[in-house]
Specification:
Elements: E1 5-10, H1 14-25, E2 30-33, E3 45-49, E4 52-55, H2 66-71, E5 81-83, E6 86-90, E7 96-100, H3 103-113, H4 115-139, H5 151-165, H6 171-179, H7 182-187, H8 193-201, H9 216-222, E8 227-228, E9 231-232, E10 236-238, H10 242-255, E11 259-261, E12 266-272, E13 275-281, E14 286-294, H11 298-305, H12 313-321, E15 328-335, H13 345-349, H14 355-358, E16 361-364, H15 368-379, E17 388-393, H16 394-397, E18 407-414, H17 425-441, H18 447-450, E19 451-457, H19 459-466, E20 502-504, H20 518-539
Parallel strand pairs: 1-2, 1-14, 2-11, 6-16, 14-20
Antiparallel strand pairs: 3-4, 5-10, 6-7, 8-9, 12-13, 13-14, 15-18, 15-19, 16-17, 17-18
Length: 540
């Protein structure tokens, strides 16, 4: 007889693994089912070519909740972050802007471009810190409904009132940034085009919006809320690539007793008498559980895994309207040597070691108009002819990512719309890869000569391989209409779905995307709360 579990989790992405770890730690019998051959979802490391470790999809960490790192003792399981050195912004005319990890060095660099911007940058950073501190506590709490008068919901609203009251001097600015564009916001502060472009770019990552689109200022703030070892706004590269993060969480979950099965594709959530009771696998196997938790995005969960007769028409309509357009792609390059950026040649001629300039992020975002033009292409169903790129040479920080003397470069690209006009991604994949490399070669002319291997990952690939509907890396747009208690749709109670004992734990729930783990953590709390209530009722 097949074992019955307290909980089955669909998908071994990082949120699903976090949820599994917390449930297993609480004593529940947990089974995680993953359709691929490895855990991690979009947070994976794969050795595509011998000796080269590719961070195929997600590639840096900052947002992972410190409480999760502590609760699951992830360092014991191999989790280690290597801080990025800063952000280099090469410019077409051969100059550059460098924002170092060290604030004093950044100030000196900004003085080279604009004395007023150097003065304003410190005030800007302080303002963003206060706004992030106002929002960050909300990431660790389930969102209250705006329409329910249930006692538990009223308590959540009261706690929210108390949280926001502590940041009252910044609430006006918070309201503005929630609705503004990232371009408008940074233009209020700065005059240097390269600085404005690099900052505004944080507002378009993973969105089908341009820098002048309302709402992108919040996305920029979303990326400001991370930390490493208590240091605010720090980003890091996991030693061993993103797969090491997932493997550490999986090891913690197994240590608490959770079981994880790969190559186990789920095709249906089993529902009897209006209640989720297990899952059916592509192999024909059925596994029963008291609770089912989906780490898949909301559209995949409710349009493909849950039979439509178990959902009312209004809810199906809301899910159909859920905005999940993908806009991002990756080009991963195995290199024979380091790229030589034109903007750093003068430093090299002076005998300066330029590797520290490359040991962080490299942002191809020379100004806001460049980003907006890239978005213009995507609006009309074309990939950007000159795309925005965020680049990390991972082997500079972690030599284990490539053979000795070789390097791994990962290139995150905007914009790559899921729906192309008049063609398909299968037909355009290599042409898109050529466009990315041609654009980058304008800044690093030796690039084409040092490429050993390349991997092009389009939104179509993200959907087919990873299971991200339309290739959306956040499981849904981070627009104001899809945040907080409206994520994924209005009317859901926390992480519960309309089907009894079916829950969501992926990035399509509050607080949203990024390798954060908060959705998995909060979903586990909701499940455990309901389990306790059920057991108390059974004893009564």
């Amino acid at each position: 007889m097949t074992k019955r579990y307290d909980a089955i989790i669909i998908g071994a992405g990082h949120n699903g693994l976090v949820c599994a770890a917390y449930l297993a730690r609480a004593g529940l019998s947990v089974l995680v089912l993953e359709r691929r051959h490895l855990v991690g979802g979009a947070a994976v490391t794969e050795e595509i070519y011998p000796g080269f470790k590719y961070t195929v999809c997600s590639y840096v960490v900052s947002l992972l909740r410190p409480s999760i790192i502590s609760d699951l003792d992830l360092p014991k399981h191999g989790f280690e972050l290597l801080p990025l050195n800063g952000t280099l912004s090469p410019l077409p005319e051969g100059d550059y802007l460098m924002r170092w990890h060290d604030a004093a060095e950044t100030r000196l660099e900004l003085m080279r471009h604009s004395r007023s911007d150097a003065e304003a940058y410190e005030r800007f950073s302080q303002k963003m810190y206060h706004l992030a501190m106002a929002v960050r506590p909300l990431l660790g709490e389930p969102p209250p409904s705006l329409t329910s008068f249930a006692p538990e919901n009223l308590r959540r609203l009261w706690r929210l009132r108390g949280t926001l009251a502590r940041h009252e001097p910044h609430l006006y600015d918070l309201a503005r940034i929630m609705t503004m564009s990232s371009a408008d916001y940074v233009e209020e502060w700065f005059e240097t085009p390269a600085l404005k472009g690099a900052l505004a770019a944080s507002g378009i990552i993973g969105t089908f919006l341009g820098p002048r689109s309302p709402g992108t200022a919040y996305v920029m703030l979303h990326h400001y809320m991370g930390e490493i070892d208590g240091q605010f706004r720090a980003w890091g590269l996991p030693r061993g690539g993103m797969g090491a993060v997932s493997e550490a969480i999986a090891a913690a979950a197994r240590g608490f007793g959770a079981q994880i099965r790969t190559e186990s594709e789920i095709v249906e959530v089993l529902i009897r008498h209006g209640r989720a009771c297990g899952v059916a696998l592509a192999s024909g196997e059925e596994i029963e559980a008291d609770t089912v938790i989906s780490n898949a995005d909301p559209k995949r969960t409710f349009e493909k895994l849950v039979p439509p007769e178990h959902l009312d028409e209004e809810f199906r309509s809301q899910i159909a309207r859920y905005n999940i357009r993908g806009s991002s792609a990756k080009v991963n390059l195995a290199l024979d040597a380091l790229p030589r950026f034109t903007c750093l040649e003068q430093l090299q001629q002076q005998g300066v070691d330029v590797r520290p300039y490359l040991a962080g992020a490299i942002s191809i975002s020379p100004d806001i108009d460049y980003l907006e033009r890239a978005y213009d292409d995507a609006k009309y169903g074309r990939y950007s002819r000159q795309p925005y790129m965020d680049i990390v040479v991972s082997s500079l920080l972690d030599p284990s990512m490539a053979p000795p003397g070789k390097h791994m470069m990962t290139v995150f690209v905007q914009y790559a719309p899921y729906d192309l006009v008049g063609t398909t991604w299968e037909a355009e994949r290599e042409s898109f890869g050529d466009t990315v490399i041609d654009t980058l070669a304008e800044y690093a002319p030796n690039l084409k000569d040092i490429i050993l291997h390349r991997q092009v990952v389009t939104p179509w690939d993200l959907e087919q391989r990873i299971g991200l509907t339309e290739g959306n890396i956040f499981h849904g747009e981070l627009g104001l209409e899809q945040l907080f208690s409206l994520r994924p749709v209005a009317g859901l109670d926390g992480y519960r779905s309309p089907v009894e004992r079916l829950y969501l734990c992926g990035s399509g729930t509050h607080p949203g995307g990024g390798v954060m783990g908060a959705s998995g953590q909060l979903a586990a709390r909701s499940v455990l709360r309901d389990v306790r209530k059920s057991r108390q009722a059974a004893r009564a």
